[in-house]
């Protein structure tokens, strides 16, 4: 590489960085994408895509077995092979081809800020190259895993989410530390692939940010899949059993032995070594780069942006991509001297980050929610009424024998609009976008009454919710 100048330089080639670069090019801005690992990032190779590939085949078999007269099984080895195909055997050439085909210049190496609009890229040969941005630098460096300060945890070769989703073999005994999304999903995946799984969670319920009914049903589903779920239990100490990753875990007054320990206790923004001090930017206590709703970094002038996990707002792939679209549009508008629409729900404001974040946990049952929980809405001072009921309609009964689900709707009674909806049940992820539209669109309940659900589908639960709300 030689020194270069572009309109926009994006540091980090995960989904948020790819989106920022792609939309900037579409706006007519010359753009470089800097990445020192794989273009496509964590989501494509070690998180969203491979984890769902590990979960999908066992889930399809479990769903089939819920119908009378169906027998089904699967080959764990074939599941691993299918996972590997979805990550292209950890080869990013296809995504590099996409980027370059879209007009994005891919620069291999680690990027760091060295001054205003200036990025130093250090490649494999350790020869730094200076890249200058005429309009904007976008930080999209994602997040890195957190390891809790447990005595002895550094004495064994623990798994993080990367090692779990890229595993070549199924451990006979797996310990999972953490009851968040990664912990729950990977506990289910490996239990169904043949591991004896123990999930250890310090709190009283898994998925602590979800509605309580979702947490309870997911935990019950894990137990039904054979996972030993230990709540209100801390990991007190770790010691190696051999030199190959096996460990003895001290917890709850006793010990267990596992062949692998997966640490899924959260992540923090990946800001180490970014050179933020060179441009006077201060991170939060967790290392996040604070931004406004256009993605502009606070204290970073009119040229520095941050999208995705690195800004600490909503650490999910789809929200990072959403922020990237907003930021790229704002960069293009400022470059052209156009006014920005930063009002709530405006073209240049990531309003959904605050009010309408959708999330799916691909367990069995699935948990899917958007917006605020009842507790969060009340804490925000919203006058709410909660409608909670079983999902029991013709569509659910036809889907599987014994199908069971639950829905929680949080209504702002002053405006009579939904501010949060949670579903828990088999396959409920596909119900979520309708709820997201209702929350984002602030659709009045009297208008939703005219959104007629097709029969016989599980979406008929929308009619039942509205009937319940009217009758109370």
From TrEMBL:
Its EC number is 1.-.-.-. It is an enzyme of class 1 (oxidoreductase). Its cofactor is FAD. Keywords: FAD, Flavoprotein, NAD, Oxidoreductase. This is NAD(P)/FAD-dependent oxidoreductase. Pfam families: Pyr_redox_2 (PF07992), Pyr_redox_dim (PF02852). The keyword NADP does not apply. GO terms for molecular function: oxidoreductase activity. Gene3D superfamilies: 3.30.390.30, FAD/NAD(P)-binding domain. InterPro entries: Class-I_Pyr_Nuc-Dis_Oxidored, FAD/NAD-bd_sf, FAD/NAD-binding_dom, FAD/NAD-linked_Rdtase_dimer_sf, Pyr_nuc-diS_OxRdtase, Pyr_nucl-diS_OxRdtase_dimer. Belongs to the class-I pyridine nucleotide-disulfide oxidoreductase family.
